[in-house]
Amino acid sequence: MAKELWKGNEAMAEAAIRAGLKCYFGYPITPQSEIPEYFSLHLPEHGGVFLQAESEIAAINMVYGAAGSGVRTMTSSSSPGISLKQEGISYIAGSELPCVILNVMRGGPGLGTIQPAQGDYFQATRGGGNGDYRVIVLAPANVQEATDLMRLAFDLADKYRMPAMILADGMIGQMMEPVEWPDEPTPEPIAKPWATTGTKGERRHNIINSLFMEPEACARHNEKLDQKYRTVAANETRFELIGDEEPEILFAAFGTPSRLARAAGKILEEEDGIKTAVFRPISLWPYPYDALYDAINQESVKAVVTVELNTGQMLDDVKIANQGSKPISFIGKAGGMIPTPREIAVAAKEALGRK
Amino acid sequence: MRDKKGTFPLNLKKITLIAGHFGSGKTEFAVNLALQSAQSGHATRLVDLDIVNPYFRSFEAKNQLDAAGVDLLVSSMGGYADIPAIPGDVAGIFIKNETREIVDLGGDPDGVRLLGMYERQLNNADFDFFFVFNANRPETATVEKGLRYFENIEFSSKQKFTALINNTHLIHETTVEEVLRGQDLALEIADKVGLPLLCNVMTEDIFEKIQAEPDYLAELKAPAFVIELQLKKPWEI
Predict the structure, then answer these.
(1) Are B55 and A5 inside 8 Å of each other by CB?
(2) How far is A33 from chain B (nearest CA, A)?
(3) What pTM was estimated for this model as a whole?
(4) Which of residues 144-163 of B touch A (CB under 8 A)?
(5) What pLDDT does B80 receive?
(6) What is the pLDDT of residues A217-256, one digit of tens each?
(7) Is residue B81 less than 8 Å (CB to CB) from chain A?
(8) How many whole angstroms separate alpha carbon A8 and alpha carbon A143?
């Protein structure tokens, strides 16, 4: 199929429709309002339901209900709106329901700014809601990948009966890039025997709930969830390692900052002959710790430089992966500003003790 | 201003209003139009009235515009707020003087609604209203879809377009064939609405390829407006 020019937000919405989305619930907020706008126009054309809820909290709880009925469902928002949804996400995870949550991140904390940021990494990967739960978190670095990951998010959510989140920085949502749609039909819905679709007098009631009256039962539930999360962690890590095969500097970055790091790598190669590579986690939970450890422990790597649009959040996971093996430094900006490739190159040279 | 054979002569009126579907490349066109207008010796002001897009706004080309001597007027609290706040200074574009006003409107019918506010002034003004068209945008990929945007924008703005601009591209993956394919669709729309296709927007490399190939040159049915990409992504150095 020929390439078309898509804005990230529209493309992610279209990808969700192609993945078989049936119910979308949301509330507008910059920089993701093109998503509900696109669904309002196009989701009904595909037999789906678009509903602008009265608030973000209402929207996530509508997702909870729709997920319980077994249909593919999602919500989207930007940072402060995603904060409002955290209670619902915890309930959905506790009730073992599949859904997709799309966060097009802007500057924070609080209302912050409308410019791109990655300040919600902790919230996404550590959980903003209560209890021992996990959410699959996928971070695209370009618009094409954002569309591919949207499909994957729905598939993984269904497979593991848990929420999956697309964590996109504002650039992904707002920029225009060519997109080529894969020649793949919309998947047939998978069997969901647990869904509350009406017993028709033929089976026992399916009950969807996250409340337990007995602590023993809740403990067993937590153990079951924990087992599931271990399975996901063992099978669903995704990453990309690009650049020189024997880098001195290993950049670690997710989302669009990985592209800033690549541009910085070009400056370093051209001006100083410094070889670099970029390790880009695509799944932020589960985090590709082992792959990053291996990348860091290539003999050529002298220093690791983490690049983020925040003040150092994924940095914690880089440190966990590193296990103290190599020096790690950080460069980033928060609140909607973006470090330039030049600034990143300077930080990398400092990490090598060079000027 | 470029004086190469086959390029757009840039005979701009006092006011140039630029609209179209969002993502068509209105802003890149507007910024380049303002730069080339100033470079050709005309006092020029770029009025960024995009109340739809929060990012990739014409005010982000401030450094290049400053260097070329283009004045800048920006909506939405300097462009940093997602509110349709129109500065009072905008009424100044209707003052009869030598300054060319290039107005970059927000995309879609929503983006041009604010023109309704200036309906009375526009009735007495010397202006052009350009419809920017990109056949690679899925929502304007056919003549029918393009026409729908054309008509809806006219309805919302309470104004009639005066010409079409073919801005069909795929950013860095644009080919001559893409530009010419877009031109054919734009010409069909132009024919249906009885307006001229004013120019085909293209980067220098596409322009050179067309100049070097007589077959391409023969297919070019409107002058070329040669642009340099001004709104780069932060990693494009």
Answers:
(1) no
(2) 10
(3) 0.95
(4) none
(5) 82
(6) 999 999 999 999 999 999 999 999 999 999 999 999 999 9
(7) yes
(8) 5
What's the gap in Å between the CA of A325 and the closest CA on chain B? 30
Count CA within 13 A, CB hemisphere, residue A298. Answer: 20
Token representation of residue A284:
């932020």
Plot region of A96 (φ>0 → left; ψ -120 to 50 → alpha; else → beta): left
Q: Indicate which CATH number applies to the domain containing B188.
A: 3.40.50.300
Q: Which chain B residues have a beta carbon less than 8 Å from that of A262?
A: 235
In the chain, the amino acid numbered B166 is: N
Domain span at B223: 15-227
Query: Shortest CA distance to A316 belongs to which of A242, A261, A262, A252?
Result: A252
What is the distance in angstroms between the Cα of A93 and the nearest Cα belonging to chain B?
33
Give the C-alpha separation, A8 to A6, whole Å.
6
Q: How confident is the model at residue B4 (pLDDT cuts 50, 70, 90)?
A: low
Asked, for residue B57, whether it belongs to a domain, the answer is yes
Percent of chain B residues past pLDDT 90, beyond the cut? 84
Vertex B21, ends A39 and A168: CA angle to 5°? 50
Closest residue in chain B to residue A267, using alpha carbons only:
B237
Q: Give yes or no for a contact between A297 and A254, defined as CB atoms under 8 angstroms apart.
A: no
Residue type at B132?
A: V
CA distance A74 to B217: 49
In chain A, which residues have pLDDT < 70?
Answer: none
Mind telling me how many Å the CA of B83 is from chain A's nearest CA?
A: 10
| Nearest alpha-carbon partner for B237 in A6, A341, A124 | A341
Contacts across the A-B interface (CB distance below 8 Å): 74
ipTM of the complex, rounded to two decimals: 0.92
Contact A4 B137 (CB under 8 A): yes
> Hey, what domains does chain A have and what are their CATH numbers?
4-235 (3.40.50.970), 239-351 (3.40.50.920)
Alpha-helical segments (H) within B70-163: 75-78, 108-112, 119-123, 143-157
Q: Which of A124-128, B85-89, B187-191 has the highest mean pLDDT?
A: B187-191
Give, as one character, the DSSP assignment of residue A188. Answer: P
**N- to C-terminal Cα distance for chain B?**
25
Amino acid at A75: T
Report yes or no: A101 and A163 within 8 Å, Cβ to Cβ. yes
Q: Phi and psi at residue A341, in whole multiples of 5°?
A: -55, -35
Answer yes or no: is pLDDT of B49 > 50: yes
